[in-house]
Specification:
The complex is a heterodimer of chains A (345) and B (259). By secondary structure, chain A is mostly helical. Chain A is built from 14 helices and 2 strands, in the order H-E-E-H-H-H-H-H-H-H-H-H-H-H-H-H. In chain A, strand 1 and strand 2 form a beta hairpin. The chains are: A mainly alpha (345), B alpha/beta (259).
């Protein structure tokens, strides 16, 4: 039997967990609403929301919604979910609230891989995706191994240094590829990468990344409690029954694969993976039981919103990466000023 | 040798680097069920290494370490987590968990692979906080705690694992005098409830106050093992620390004096 104070204290905790869950469902509902509204939002036939009658009468409008906006919206959703979930996983596993998938050579690796593919192997969606994923993993592996060999500073500093160095290597490689690229056909395609955007998303492109993203995100969702455990020191994680090396590898893979996949379709879309986990933790606390799924929903909403702006604000398309960086950095600065990001060490 | 052994080290050798040779060599040790064993020795004697071997985190080069007659490398991760808990000397806490959430992590070995903690786990975690005497801070942020409070939270997390064997690495290093007293009392209560304890310490007083078996280590070797009363002599302690030490007894309590 537990004491009376214990049970009343625990009731408070249970109620807070309950309110987290309610808030989570509210977010899910909000996301669904945003998704449907975004489906109707656009610049055809006129800027703004398309009416239901119009959709029923106008074949072109229907085609546009089903074949262009729908896959694009789903991709935006997956992009936000994957980058935010990846951000949470990286921040937990490296015990550092300031890392994101891009920090450790993953994003630069993926960009290099895509450009490599465009210049030397041709631009089939599946091959680009494979190449981007391969170089993203290579970037991460190189950063990790390099960090282990650096003989300077603490673990986090070494990781960041290694990540910067590897990212710079891939950036240089990207520069060489751009120099070699055909300025009329290949260079514009590479440039698209560096700005990020979803304008060219079609059903086949979406379907090529859907399985890996869905499987990885499901794995992360199912392992959301383990993520708490793996954020601890290795010996401690081991002492409470985890197999830290094996489980970290699994979680890292499940974070990097979908990141590489969505980047391979959307190009470089920055700041989502850094800022959304912070917002999620600010609202739900650090416990990844809530912070991880909530980050996925918040990330999905953020990228859908940014993509809505990207395609409707001006007659021409605004690159998505510009908007996420602009909004993300803005929100980040406000967060930093408002209460300070707590970093120990 | 009345009580049966919970854990035995048999001819254990271990090192971190093949080239520089073993850190621990030819180590034999037996931890009696319900006993408190303190490992005493100067910095670099291999105390923490011994603890990490007992945890199963480090694998011996030679020899065997058995828990209840079974080699610990052959026990599943989950099962081992239910039996052996570690209170590390310190821990880097990068995120803003509440104290209760942090202690709840100790319930992990009892959860199925994809499971989440339920009300029973919360109750065990809260009780662990009560046992350590810090239930009043259960909803505080880990980042707002003092060093001593953090240490006690780590102790509560280990107790939430309901271990048979509790490993403590320098448990008193961040504690002030009153918390040291609390810890000693806690260890004495644990002993009464049948938990076996293996602890390293820099402080001979703590070792004398709680242990019934004392292990003296020096340069990777166990110099002497035996009942605390018999081992804690002026001569033995002076020898391993390399400075003159006198053990005196007043009102039934041993005290350490130097100079």
């Amino acid at each position: 039997m537990i004491s009376e104070t214990a049970s009343s204290e625990l009731q408070v905790v249970y109620r807070r967990n309950q309110s987290h869950r309610r808030l989570f469902w509210a977010l899910l509902f909000g996301l669904a609403f945003l998704f449907l509204a975004s489906l109707l939002l656009g610049r055809y036939p006129a800027p703004g929301l398309i009416s239901w009658e119009r959709l029923n009468q106008d074949d072109l409008a229907r085609l546009l919604v089903l074949n262009l906006r729908l896959p694009r919206l789903i991709t935006a959703l997956l992009l936000g979910m994957a980058l935010s979930a990846g951000g949470v996983v990286f921040q937990m596993l490296f015990s550092n609230p300031l890392v994101e998938p891009g920090f450790l050579g993953v994003s630069q690796g993926a960009s290099f891989g895509a450009a490599f593919c465009i210049v030397l192997l041709g631009s089939s969606a599946v091959v680009i995706q494979g190449s981007a994923a391969f170089f993203a993993l290579l970037g991460l592996g190189m950063s990790y191994l390099l960090a282990r060999r650096i003989r300077y500073g603490g673990w986090v500093l070494r990781l960041v240094l290694a990540g910067i160095a590897v990212s710079a290597l891939f950036s240089a490689g990207l520069g060489i590829l751009k120099y070699l690229a055909d300025p009329l056909s290949q260079l514009p395609e590479i440039t698209f990468w560096l700005l990020g955007g979803l304008a060219s998303v079609t059903w086949p492109k979406l379907l090529s990344i859907l399985p890996v993203v869905l499987v990885s995100l499901s794995v992360l969702f199912l392992l959301r409690w383990r993520l708490n455990v793996l954020a601890l020191n290795e010996e401690t994680a081991f002492s409470i029954g985890a197999a830290p090396q094996r489980e970290r590898l699994l979680l890292l893979t499940a974070a990097v694969l979908p990141t590489a996949a969505v980047i391979s379709v959307a190009g470089m879309v920055g700041w989502v993976g850094l800022i959304i986990p912070h917002i999620s933790r600010r609202i739900f606390g650090s416990d990844t039981r809530y912070a991880l799924p909530a980050a996925m929903l918040l990330g999905g909403m953020f990228t859908i919103l940014c993509d809505d702006l990207a395609r409707t604000l001006l007659a021409g398309e605004i690159p998505l990466g510009i908007l996420t960086s602009l909004l993300g950095a803005g929100v980040f600065l406000i967060l930093m000023i408002s209460r300070g990001v707590k970093v120990e060490r | 040798m009345s009580a049966p052994a919970l854990m035995t080290f048999d001819q254990v050798a271990f090192g971190y680097n093949r080239a520089s040779g073993p850190v621990l060599d030819n180590l034999n040790l037996s931890l009696k069920k319900g006993g408190v064993t303190a490992v005493l020795g100067p910095n670099g004697a291999g105390k923490t290494t011994l603890l990490l071997l007992a945890l199963g985190w480090l694998k011996p080069w030679k020899g065997t370490i058995q828990l209840d007659g079974k080699r610990i490398q052959q026990i599943s991760r989950r099962h081992l987590g239910q039996q052996i808990a570690l209170i590390p000397q310190s821990e880097h806490i990068p995120f803003e968990y509440s104290v209760l959430e942090y202690v709840l992590l100790g319930r992990t070995p009892y959860l199925p692979p994809l499971g989440l903690p339920g009300e029973e786990d919360y109750e065990v975690a809260y009780e662990a906080l009560e046992r350590v005497g810090i239930a009043h801070i259960s909803r505080q942020s880990m980042l707002a705690l003092s060093g001593g409070e953090k240490q006690l939270v780590l102790a509560a997390r280990a107790l939430a694992q309901k271990p048979k064997l509790l490993l403590l690495d320098e448990p008193t290093s961040h504690l002030d005098l009153s918390n040291k007293v609390h810890l000693v009392e806690l260890l004495q209560r644990l002993k009464l409830s049948g938990v076996t304890v293996l602890m390293t310490t820099h402080e001979p007083e703590i070792a004398l106050a709680v242990s019934d078996q004392l292990v003296l280590m020096q340069k990777g070797r166990v110099v002497l093992t035996g009942e605390t009363e018999a081992v804690a002599t002026d001569q033995n302690l002076s020898q391993i620390y390399g400075v003159p030490i006198r053990v005196t007894s007043s009102e039934g309590r041993k005290q350490i004096n130097w100079l």
